[in-house]
Fold these 4 entries.
Entry 1:
Amino acid sequence: MKKLFITIFALSMILAASVVFGQRLGRNRVPGHLQTKQVKVGDLKRSFFLFVPKRLEQNKKVPLLFVFHGGGGNPLAMDQRLGFTELARKERFVVVYPEGIGRNWNDGRETDTTQAHREKVDDIGFVSAIIDRVSEAYRIDQKRIFATGPSNGGIFSHYVGANLSERFAAIAPVIGGIADPFYKRFNPKDPVSVFVIQGTEDRLVPYDGTNGIGFGRRRNRGKIISTDRAIALWTKHNRVDARPIKSNLPDKDSNDGCTVETFLWKNGKNNTAVKLFKMNGGGHTWAGGQQYLPRRIVGNVCRDFDATDEIWSFFKAHPKP
């Protein structure tokens, strides 16, 4: 009985992990550095938060970065936990933190467990409307529009990149794969550079695409395909080199339970690339970020690199031509 209780408790904690990962710090407070905005998409008023560095040069175009929260999460937590706002201050780019309906994104999975999926919310229209709105107010470089996010936000980053390939130069899905059955109709119009960061010990979004906790028939929260299959879809679409450049990151922290293999497919159409950081031993976590739940619940946080810095370096190197 005791073992059964422990097992049930552990599973419930894992199911809550995606929520905790994105929980708000200071629930009812919007930080002064963020602007609260709305756009209308169909009959819905949709909300997003915007960060614009002070004293942008009037005649200089700037990049635009979307950061999508995870399932059950929210945009303020992404601002406070991932470090993109501080990076934007230094690097001079605009950041959008959109808010999903019911704290989830309609990301290409088939499920009725979230409002966004049940109501088939037009999140692609929402993202496109944000680009239009922000571009009217600021000199956004249309060749440097990017997207990233963890978990459900990572799955949605794939979905956005594929459905709005004519608008996004590059995406960086973190601990989130391509949705099933969406992969069957995966057919982006344009090439898109892609940087995937995925842990081999992720129990919520498994590297091999098997049904993770919270995915599959038992809870009907939908499915994803394996990381390798997702990479194959993008490498084929972008027409990159057949063989990747392989390397290993230095094991900076021998106690983090994680080592990192890197794979880079170069010379794609329109100078695109596909990159994979395979975190051997890594869990459902943001590399270089917080251990937001115990290791036994969400797995290891890799300390050998900082995902935020690596993602922005990749984006800077891969604008649209």
Entry 2:
Amino acid sequence: MTLVKVGILDSGLAGAVAARAVASAAFTLGPEGEIERGAAEPDLIGHGTAIARLVLEAAPEVEVVNAQIFSGGATTTAAAAAAGLDWLRIEGARLVSMSFGLRGDRGVLRYACEEAARAGIILVGAAPARGAPVFPSSYTEVIAVTGDARCGLGQISTLYNRVAEFGACPRPPANLGDRPIGGASFAVGHACGILARALVDGRIASASAARGFLDGMAHYRGRECKGAEIG
């Protein structure tokens, strides 16, 4: 079994999930427009906690690293995301969940993804099923995942889509209360859980291997409306 650190670049962690984090930090916009690093606060949104739960349910052996870039609301900046990703790289994350999408292509985030990829980190980002591309999932270094209603727990689809490479289960973890019911962001959590399990078991060790692994296990190929079950 391989020791694996999984980075959660999200709204933070709360409760029992927060206790699983081996390192935590928050990245916020300072008064002069600079990014400040500070202590992470409890997850008030619940999103990061839900994503981490999906990863831990699939691979309970992993160590979670918490990079909080959303705090009181559902918005962040490319600079905060880049700073959080840089920190996760330094902390030794092997896999990073980036379960959000920004409309603009920003050099600072693109460079952070390039640096993370050069360090051998597997990056997974949320992508829309159709429509305009978002970032960081549109960068070549990032595995782009969207929600696919055909997929159940542990299932993947290969989409041949210009904005999303793979689909995964769009549903949140059980007992989430009044949180959002599902979508691409939770699909990222499910895909990261699958990849975390494969990393722990030594079945993959790189982003290219991760892509091949997901494609090889695909239950469906093509878009939802045209896909056919293959396994």
Entry 3:
Amino acid sequence: MKKLLLWLFLAVSITAYAQIPSYYNDVNLSQSGTDLKDELATKVISTHTTYLSYTPGVWNALQQSDVNPNNSNEVILIYGHNDNDGNVKTDRTRGKYDNGGSVGDWNREHVFAKSLANPDLGTSGAGADAHNLRPCDFQQNSTRNNRKFGTGTGAAGFINSNGDWYPGDEWKGDVARMIMFMYIRYGNRCSPINVGTGSSVSIDNNMIDLFLQWNADDPVSTFEASRNDVIANIQGNRNPFIDNPAFATQIWGGPQAEDKFGNGGGDSGDGGGGNPGGSTDDLFFSEYIEGSSNNKALEIANFTGSTVNLSSYTIKKQTNGAGSWSSPYSLSGNLSNGNVYVIAHSSASSTIRNQADATTGTAIITFNGNDPVGLFKNNVLIDIIGDFNGGSSNFAQNVTLRRKASITSPNTSYTEAEWDEYATDTSSNLGSHSVNGGGSGSGTTAGSTTVLHEGFFESGLDGWVDGGGDCYRYSGSRSYEGNYSVRIRDNSGTASSMTLNNVNVAAYDEVEVEFYFYAYSMESGEDFWLRYYNGSSWQTVRAYRSGTDFQNNNFYSSKVTLSSANYNFTSNAKFRFQCDASANADEIYIDQVKITGIINASARMNSEPTKSSDITLLSVSPEEDELAVNEDFTIYPNPVVNQLEIKIFAAENASYKIHNLFGQVVKVGNLQNKTLNVSNLKAGMYILQVNDGDEILTKKFMKK
């Protein structure tokens, strides 16, 4: 919403988000994709404490939340734009108490139309959620009826032969954020694809690019933000997408929306729509051959400036432009800078196969002109050929497509202008590619780098070995990236360590180890080590000492360089992080480890690891007491069939409630033996709330 009190907007916007609202203190905002979506859903469901009646509850709420800031006797009308054109239907304001069902009245507009939900929203529960209701002129409300939203410009009204409804330039962002709220609050009952016309994004078939675009195009106004505050005071929950529109970008990708919290989000999702999703330092598709018979091939180019380990990359296909992505086709090996990697059909012509680095007859290479193909890194879409969910129409049948030399970045939105088209079975340029300002050379150049290992720990230990009882893979807010890190504690030798085996560093002049860490309860002088195994013995490369190198409850990054002049580089090297503290409560959390080999780095050949400049303070964590409470609250198994076990440091008289995703309380009681029998619950997702007398803790679980 773009209008209303410009002077007030300027005054308030300076200070309104100096810090993230305390409402989100127990939400891990560093997540992305469906993880962040689930986290926010848990929050808005568990904090929805007051359920309004449709009459008089909703009337009363809207008379508070939608008051005209210029006249407290009026409300603002959604879809309205002009109070002075003599047409009451287009009015933007109306008397606060002029509500009802006659011409000249305002009534309650369900932005997510009741009948477009499945099942129908009705007029209680979800149908009386004030986050989805707005004052609207009686006639305008009737005209919109249950029409889907569609793209347009100008004032509200019909915009195409389908009868789609455009809410108006001033209101499209408000609408998008309300739809997003309803989706995370009520799940698939309120799927965005059922209330708007657009293309699904690849990470979530229920979300469409229309609402992501509107969210970015029309920023949050002071009125919209104030309305969110009022409803939060009435219902208990907030609309996160009003507080920070960039959450949508973090979850679903698409165009970058306003980032009020300053925690990024543009490269987190893998949405299928919107602006280019890659960067100049990543791989991209450079050629696509869809020829006669089995003459099919894909080419991937590397102009990142470094050799890239392909193990993080996969290719997926969407058959006939519908349904989900296929199972991934995994790439392997290393791709040096300036070179390409070709995957060809195993029955393609010899001309094509002679250029191939890999051949296969699997479905990934049997595209036929209407099958979008995506390049994924760590399961996040970074480049695409074809439109995801584009349907059965052909975008590239019986043609060769070659990326233009001016294109140096991947793009999660297929753009025809980025490609040159050639006749069927053209393969004369397969096996090489050039970009403006670059070349198509091969081989290793001076100062070249190769990523030997990356460990993010989101799906496992990523090759690291758990040393024993004082090391484990941890999920929680002490992880720097994503949800997971590895915790080491105490001083139990290898049991307090994590080890990466069989790293071939023999060919390199230097090896760089970069990682992120968080310390908890480490006493002054206690330390942890980065160690290196040279084929015959262990050496401590760097010791990190509490009180000198780091403080507790902060995130740090560290980058250490080993030189072949000082260490024996071998083909079976090992790396180890080891804690040397004094008790189980003294903990280090290791995350996002990257090991890089460097060739011809003579300028630094004889350098030793520095003792202070290699550590960077990244951020100060929230109060650790608060974090510790949440992390001492765990449930298992999840998903659960019958018995849900609860680990929590809480008073013996702690009480609990279980909500379904509609906000209904389905089970209550006192938490006595820390085991809940949930066998009678229907299959689905639930929210567990535990009240220990001091605060309410929440966890989401799945009942099988």
Entry 4:
Amino acid sequence: MTSLITCVVHNNQQHQLRASTEKLANGIQMGINYRLYAIERVETFSGEAVQLVKLRNPLGPGGEYIGAWARGGLEWDEIPAMERERLAVRNMAEGEFWISYSDFVKTFTHLEVVHLDAETSRDEPSLHNKHTWQMKLYQGSWRRGVTAGGCRNNQETFHINPQLHLILSEMEEVIVSLNQHSIMELKVIGFTAYTLPKNSTESINKQFFKKKKSLVNSEYTNSRQVSHRCQLEQGGYLLVPTTFEPTQETSFTLRVYSSKPLKLKLLDTPPSLMKSAIVKAPPLEGKGFSQYEAVFLQLADEHRTVNAFELQELLEACLPNDYIKSCACMEVCRQVVLTMDSSGSGRLKFNDFKDLMCSLKYWQAAFKNHTKEKTGILKAERLRDALLEVGFQLNTDVLSILILRYMRKDGTLRFGDFVSAILHLSDAFGIFESKDPLQNGTIKLSLAEKNFFTEIGVGLAGFGISFLFLGILLFFDKGLLAIGNLLFISGLACVIGPRRTLSFFFQWHKIKASASFLGGVLVVLMGWPIVGMIIETYGFVLLFSGFLPVAISFLRRVPILGTILNMPGLSRILNKIAGDTNRTTV
């Protein structure tokens, strides 16, 4: 096989931590890997049998071995010339030497075998006629809250580690090698293997590891590499590389070597919506909702609806004074409105609020099931299981985004963070479910696509407002105004979706506002820009006055226009109009 054997001298303090150039009395350098070429047996004139080991110093000349059987040593005179010629004593390359087996064992502390795959072994001439290893590798990482579950001692988090499916076509001896990429602070690493059917495609849950006995357990050590050689039957296997302690982060490479073809792939779960996370309130109103209705109506407008700011006041009044109240912040309230407002008006009806209260109770139960150690604090490693109970089946990539967005410095989430994650997922799945032609209730999605359309929509709307502003500055240039209107409406459709855009403009109580706004746009397109902009502005104020603070915050981020709106004097005026738009961090 295409393998190299090396030997090295380590002292106890420097073992596998750093190399030392210190020399032993026989000239062998500590910390240097000497290549082992051959082991031969010779017989002296006296009939004594001696075993010799041929080594090579990779540094070449300058580090010569000076012990027994060294180059030019008197020991060579004790064997026949024919033996010296067979061992090529006079034709050895630079750095090559022979050493007796007894001295070899006394001198070197570690013997290491380096296995090379077909591509790498081409660079070593001595391996050209050897049978090559078949090698598969996976490069991954242990990330806190996502894939850093620790060793099997941690039963509650072991299953979140990367899971690799190994398939062997026949019984074979394989070598599994795990390398960590840490340099300064090495983690204690290792891996565990289980038998697993060949047809497995999704990641394995917690219950499997609690019931299943492991087949192979490597040693756990704080070295750069941990390797294990074992004989495996034909079939499928599950490899789980881990750090010894959970939450430890570093990247790694896992390689599997075999003399026969093999397959290695990562097991992961496709993201899907198992059931709706939003719970609908029962049709018959009970006494539980009547206590909320009075408070709701006090804050609602003439259409019996509330915006995000009023919703925050409502939740602060209705929620109990415990960890649940952490969701009564502006960031969560804005996300609630974005997710539960089907009309696109930026406001919620009382029925929407009842659905929210029922959903909060449902989400609280799921949250509580996974926070038994400390009430109100969810460990990031349990977020995937908690969201699965709510109805979201997530893969590692999506979970990584949520952890990056919501995990706190101590590696935990509060209830408000949990609610925000649910709302973001509900919004994302809802958008793609509306575009699913099969409408089968279980879909696969990429959050990157959702972000892509949202960013395009924000960009189009921003450019539209900029064109409108420039059109007004250039004495109502009808071309710029027409382009600005088209870009703004297109951007709005990309951000909230075509269906919600139509619903937003064509609600019965908004007929006057929508007719004015769209009519003004039509008048601008027909060539009467001044009249059209007056009508359009009137309709715009009627349509968007309900979330004027959000609109002002958005306009401040628009290129050119944002610079003007953030000027000191104008900024103070807008702050008074918009009110407090600062977000409260949970």
